[in-house]
Amino acid sequence: MSIALVINSSSNFLLTGFPGLEWAHHWISIPVFSVYLAAILGNATILHIVRTDPSLHQPMYYFLAMLASTDLGLCVSTMPTVLGVLWLDLRGIHLYACVLQLYIVHSFSYMESAMLFAMAYDRFVAITNPLRYPTKLTSSRVVKITVILGLRSTMIIIPPVARLLWLSYCRHNTLSHSYCLHQDMIRLSCSNTKFNNFYALIVIFLSMGSDFLFILLSYAMIFRSVLAIASHKGQLKAINTCVSHILAVLCFYVPVLGLSIVHRFAKHSSPIIHIVMGNVYILFPPLMNPIIYSIKTQQIRRAIIKVISLRQAR
Q1: What is the pTM of this model?
Q2: How far is the C-alpha of 86 from the C-alpha of 310, rounded, in Å?
């Protein structure tokens, strides 16, 4: 294979819409755009009410605001290419743009996992040690936790992502999704990718894996404390404060696990499966998180109703 061919194929990649359904892309774009719009409006609303309502200036809602910011980041970073493919058939993407996008997407994904872990810790402290909750999770400590988790999410993936710029891509240059992912880029490389594969596996275990493990441990101790509460009403009240977070954890980790299984064990399955799982991975958590917290969290629901009432009064 000539050097010219390697250089040419490494410069541009082709994003994938819905193979075999190109004629229906404009119709498919309607529900996809609707989901993006609902997710953006929902998370922007959460951010607005947490910022403007003094009663929500508490650690739990600060972490919820960071989760909403992360979901907005996931939507904004993937929406241009996803809708570009569906609306205008803009499939081409340069190597540098692709690497930048996948860095942002993976950073926000790790940040979402980190925020879910932080929210589990918040619920753990609030339920197991309510008297010390105000002193353990002060505003300054919440900021420190957020900064540390943010640095972890963005710095830990720099080595494998940066190395993508120096790999050769001499196979077919068609990606599996309408946005870029690390595992998708590795699949197209004809260079030695052992470092990227091994490092990515370690990163997943040290970030998402450890986050999920700590979430499970937190809830094991939370349920232990709840069972020690004498009254049944008190037990239900304590558990009810965790329902929204448990649902948010499931909405995030189930699609992540599903996409990982598809990439590792269903490489030769129908491309539609890859496309659907990829879209669920980036759209389901941002869409569902505002809905879950609006329905299951009384304070958020009241704040949203208050904002709507004030606008109607004008």
Answers
A1: 0.90
A2: 38
